[in-house]
User: Which sequence fits this backbone?
């Protein structure tokens, strides 16, 4: 039995949730999102709450019950508050800068890396070594942050590379004489 799916999603003020032919739409101050629903779950909007329930006792229905409750909660939080990921750059000469719709990274390669900023995502550089990726879609924010991190993952010997702000890099001991 899903422990996550039992709890209803509370709709904050300023957020509109609508159900229409197998999809759920959520609108808020930061944007609008729409997602198709699977036939195994039943979603209802009552007053200021969204409840999700399985349609049958099948294994997939029980799995989708908790999953779709979490997805709907992420949609509601995203359009009302938004999500963000902080990335830190460590390394001599490593830096980042934004100009228009492009993030320029200098990561020790022979050329700067140009990463296009997708629609609906905002990337800011607080300092040349701090990148903040933000937006209303939790999945896209995480995907863009992972793509940026993949250009130079942190290595375990000196800790150089791009890492999440809350990530801990396990360091290894170098060669001995």
Assistant:
């Amino acid at each position: 039995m899903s422990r996550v799916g039992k709890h209803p999603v509370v709709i904050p003020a300023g957020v509109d949730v609508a159900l229409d032919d197998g999809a759920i739409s959520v609108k808020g101050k930061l944007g609008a999102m729409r997602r198709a629903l699977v036939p195994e779950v039943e979603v209802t909007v009552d007053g200021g709450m969204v409840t999700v329930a399985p349609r049958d006792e099948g294994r997939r229905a029980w799995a989708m019950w908790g999953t779709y409750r979490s997805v709907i909660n992420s949609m509601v939080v995203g359009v009302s508050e938004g999500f963000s990921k902080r990335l830190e750059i460590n390394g001599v000469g490593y830096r980042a800068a934004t100009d228009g719709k492009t993030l320029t990274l200098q990561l020790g390669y022979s050329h700067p890396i140009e990463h296009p900023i997708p629609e609906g995502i905002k990337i800011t550089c607080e300092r040349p070594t701090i990148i903040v990726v933000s937006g209303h879609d939790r999945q896209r924010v995480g995907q863009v942050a992972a793509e940026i991190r993949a250009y130079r993952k942190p290595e375990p010997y000196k800790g150089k590379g791009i890492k999440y702000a809350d990530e801990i890099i396990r360091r290894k001991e170098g060669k001995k004489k």
About this structure: The chain has a mean pLDDT of 89. The first helix runs from residue 59 to 80. The chain is about 20% helix and 40% strand.
